[in-house]
Design brief:
Elements: E1 2-8, H1 30-42, E2 50-53, H2 57-70, E3 74-76, H3 93-96, H4 100-105, H5 120-137, E4 142-147, H6 149-160, E5 177-182, E6 187-194
Parallel strand pairs: 1-4, 2-3, 2-4
Antiparallel strand pairs: 1-5, 5-6
């Protein structure tokens, strides 16, 4: 069994207002840096073998305090980067309200392609395959995965066999931790959206 602690990046200014997507230069804000610092104590006592992060700044900044405290190398992994939001990158949510494709995307996530971007199913496939490859290579490892809300939702929904069309029924808060155990033939979601210290 390989264990994965799925950490959503901490708070940054676009959350709740616009789509940061893969745009460069999106950093944690003051609250986000506080949340990142708290991750050190939230993982206190937890053995960790490896840490993987999305290449985007907000994800890398989230895990930096923990990596320094543990003196552990962080591996940057493109497989867990944010969903490719294509033409919607940088758009405010209120600007997208009249967009028919945006409405379809939020009701039929399993089939709708983002203009100039990817489908959530494609993102799900790459992220799940990445975790499964780690579990196969290191079946008794304990790993931190620092990624993005929709990517973590997609991973969890795959293992729970829930349709991506129900994505809005799962809350993944900034700096939250969800826990998945991957066995050779199945996976177990052990915790979801934990926003305090691990039990």
């Amino acid at each position: 069994m390989a264990t994965f602690f799925l950490v959503r990046h901490a708070t940054c200014d676009p959350i709740g207002h616009s789509i940061a997507g893969r745009a460069p230069g999106v950093h944690l804000n003051v609250e986000g840096h506080r949340q990142a610092a708290e991750l050190v104590s939230r993982f206190d006592g937890a053995h960790i073998d490896a840490v993987y992060t999305s290449p985007l700044e907000r994800a890398r900044e989230t895990i930096e305090p923990f990596a320094r405290a543990r003196d552990i190398e962080v591996v940057v992994a493109s497989e867990i980067i944010e969903l490719d939001f294509g033409e919607w990158t940088g758009a405010r949510f209120d600007e997208l309200e009249s967009d028919a494709t945006w409405k379809r995307f939020n009701t039929a996530r399993s089939t709708t392609r983002i203009p100039g971007g990817e489908t959530m199913r494609e993102a799900q496939s790459r992220a799940v395959a990445f975790l499964e490859s780690i579990a196969e290579r290191a079946p008794k490892s304990r790993n931190i995965i620092v990624s993005h809300g929709d990517i973590i939702r997609a991973i969890v929904m795959d293992f729970l066999e829930i349709s991506l069309d129900s994505v809005h029924h799962l809350e993944i808060s900034p700096a939250s931790i969800s826990v998945v155990d991957i066995y050779p033939k199945w996976a177990v979601v052990r915790a979801l959206n934990v926003c305090e210290s691990l039990p």
